[in-house]
Amino acid sequence: MCVPPFISGWKPGRGWSQRLPHVSALGKIFMALPLGDRVYQMLDLKLLMYVDFPAHMNPGVLVTCADDVMLYSAIQSVEFTKPGFTALAHPSPLSIGQSHGVFVLERGDELPVCDVEYRTCLRYLHKPSVDVMRRSGAVFRKHDEEVVYTDSTYYISHGTVEMLLDLFHEIGPLSCEIDAYGDFLQSLGTNATAEYTNNTENVMKKEKDLVEVRKKIFQHLRGTQLNVVILNKSKFYHLGTMEEYLFHLTGDVCLRKELGLQTITFSSCSQSVCENKNVCIIQSVVHPSVRVCEGSVVEFSRLEDGVELGQSSIVSSCWVDRGLSVPSNTFMHSLAVCSDSRTQFITVAFSVRDDLKKTMPSYAEVNRLEVFGVSLGECVSRWGLSVGDIRFSGDGCVRNLWTCRIFPVCEDMRTSFSTTLQMVQAAHGNEIVSLHKYTLLSLQEILQHKDLETMLKFRNNLHQDIL
């Protein structure tokens, strides 16, 4: 396969998965899914979902997200043969439209009714408010409910890919992050305007060249066709946040039935450790005395005797020592880091409801950030630190939980987990800990120094023990 020069050696800038951080190290496309006797990944499911597409597709590029599942039933095939862009669209409630892309379709007030229907798109809205959706004419009434048509996967024809290559050569080396959805699709449609190019509301890092690059993209793609394939019988599942991930893997009866999701997948674990079937355990070694409560996920971990995991929690790539208790609604993930040829371990922890992207404009507004439902200022005091001790990685311009240096570096996995668990318990007001003696890193820095070889070796050891 010939790889275009703008893809070769390229790394997606927005691929850190800040809303689902346990898949950040390897990437969301390698997210483990409880689909069978062996551990399957999102990549396997994506290839299965789209296996019929190439037979009905002209040469081009197919772009898809790594954190969604699309299931559809249609008598006729989906065709990708038109020039320009062709996007799949799914009926969704307005609440879903607010965090995804929404298509403004050419129509009177006619609601699409066929299983598969081809429409021309007037405009693409990126994460619009309900008011913007209404004013733009994107909202349909379906029975007694309001729906919009949201994005998932799209196709770029060969001729349009060549046009993008020309643009890449014109711009030269990219100095800012480009969103494959927001920055491309907003420039398409007969009613598209350049207004979006100045709107950086949904951009985490506001880079100086972004607006100019967006304007060049708009000029280059203006007038390019945006065809929409409406899949009215489709079901769209988004696994991109911790709460969505937990719900779809444990509590979503529909998805469990349609995909055959399992409670225990390739693990040394008895059914008795699970409070009920609404639990998910993937490639883990779990002592028979462990208790895993409803709505929780354990993956690639070793849980010693007497461990308790509360409700709606995520434990990923951890070695949990005997007798430890993880509170409900807690996310914990251990990573290996390498510095000066030395491997050490860090366990990160958050509430599954924490917003890792939320920023604080200045240090004076430190309490805008919350960890475990408690202000960051209050939390650091419970960790034996002061507000003045808070530091952020990178250039210091982006101040959020992703860049906040609060996680202690330890010499082994078990110590790392138990040390961070003490931080979690202190945040809940159960004890006071002191982090003064530790080197503290942010999740951003941890990923920059990750030791994937050591992390994958731990997974392989679990695999051998399970066999």
TrEMBL record:
Q: Where are the transmembrane segments?
A: none
InterPro entries named among the record's database cross-references:
GDP_fucose_pyrophosphorylase, Trimer_LpxA-like_sf
Q: Which domain of life is it from?
A: Eukaryota
Q: Which Gene3D superfamilies match?
A: Hexapeptide repeat proteins
Domain GDP-fucose pyrophosphorylase, chain residue ranges per copy: 15-411
Instruction: Provide the leader sequence positions.
Output: none
Citing just one GO molecular function, the answer is: nucleotide binding
Please name the GO terms of the biological process aspect recorded for this protein, alphabetically.
GDP-L-fucose biosynthetic process
Q: Which UniProt keywords apply?
A: Nucleotide-binding, Transferase
The protein, known as: GDP-fucose pyrophosphorylase domain-containing protein
